[in-house]
Amino acid sequence: MFEGSYVALVTPFDKNGDIDFRTLENLIEFHIKEKTDGIVPCGCTGEAATLKHAEQKKIIEFVIEKVNGRISVIAGTGSNSTEEALDLTSFAKKAGADAALLITPYYNKPTPQGQYLHYQRIAEEVDIPIVLYNVPSRTGINMLPETIARLSKIPNIVAVKEANPSLDQVSKIISLCDIVVISGNDSVTLPILSVGGRGVISVAANVVPRKIHNLVCSFKEGDLKEAKKIHIGLFPLFEALFYETNPIPVKESLALMGKIQPYLRMPLCRMGDENKEKLIRVLKGLKLV
User: Fold this and answer.
1) 133 vs 77, 101, 191, 287, CA distance in Å?
2) At 117, phi and psi to the nearest 5?
3) How large is the average pLDDT for residues 78-84?
4) How large is the average pLDDT for residues 173-180?
5) CA–CA gap between residue 142 and residue 15 (Å, rounded)
6) What is the pLDDT of residue 166?
7) CATH assignment of 4-221?
């Protein structure tokens, strides 16, 4: 667990803005067939910020039920409110999630001590493996390696999804403690693996799940030439999936591939024409459309 390629799963919506559970089930089966090692519903890519808590719980429960133990499920249960995160994490535990992914509290920008107390409270009240999620571009604050090292001493805080692209940060985390480090940025997954990372929670895996799985496996098996080949081959896609705010480009890609309908929840909106044309060129270059 916590090694390999995990997909930061999109949440498919229908034209009315409701969750499209039939398409969600199809995506789950697609990922299992394509060797994804684990599914992460209700993260940033899953538009958790626009989901009602009842919807988020329903998605978590649905994914766990449909996966049925075939691969791991790490439920996104983070919030900028400790009480809300505690409620969602407690639900994920009862629903049977293998672990919970908790984003650093956003907007209110807690101090390192506040971050520590937030995670400590949840970890001590809910006996489930917890993956910290550090994503400064979303939260407006970086979780320092020293804070992560301090949190790693709590027994069920077992991993960190590190979406700060700094290899200095990753290297320092690994030098300070034994916590499992998982890449949160596809473009630096290979470099993170090279300094001791164990896998990725991937946006690109929504589109090319088997290739992301093979990238991590190739590295783990010592085939660095193949890992590098996959990384370089996919690098244009890694860039394209952030032409606009995630998950706008990845949902546009999946719609072009016929996997989902291209709907997002406001305030997110459809991709601009110029960026869409650039995205299509990348997808065609990879023979995905």
Assistant:
1) 11, 6, 19, 32
2) -65, -35
3) 95
4) 96
5) 36
6) 87
7) 3.20.20.70
Q: Note the pLDDT tens digit of each residue in 126-172.
A: 999 999 999 998 898 999 999 999 999 999 999 999 998 889 999 99
Q: What is the pTM of this model?
A: 0.95
Give the chain's mean pLDDT: 96
Active-site annotation holds for 119? no
Considering only CA atoms, which of 76, 172, 84, 169 is closest in space to residue 130?
Answer: 76
**Does the active-site annotation cover 161?**
yes
Q: Which of 57, 161, 251, 276 is catalytic?
A: 161
133, 211, 243, 251: the catalytic one is 133
